[in-house]
Write a structure and sequence with these properties.
Distance between the termini: 61 Å
Helix content: 25-40%
Largest sheet: 2 strands, antiparallel
Number of helices: 3
Strand order of the largest sheet: 1-2
Radius of gyration: 19 Å
Number of domains: 1
Shape: rod-shaped
Number of strands: 4
Length: about 70
Amino acid sequence: MSNTENEFFDCVVCEEDVPSGRVALGYDTCLECGAKEAKRETYRKSLCVAPAFNKGAYQYVTSKSMVRDLGR
């Protein structure tokens, strides 16, 4: 193993060690902080769905203009 595989970086939230492999994938948080962030984002997105029309499937609402056009 090379030394770069064993390097650790600091989490931007709690400053714990983040393995270099996780950093290479583009993450800047440790697993615990990343899981908390993912749960918050999942909850937020669950509040952003609505039926676009009567008897229609739920759709992800992504902008204020979509909100104005819902149900028309």
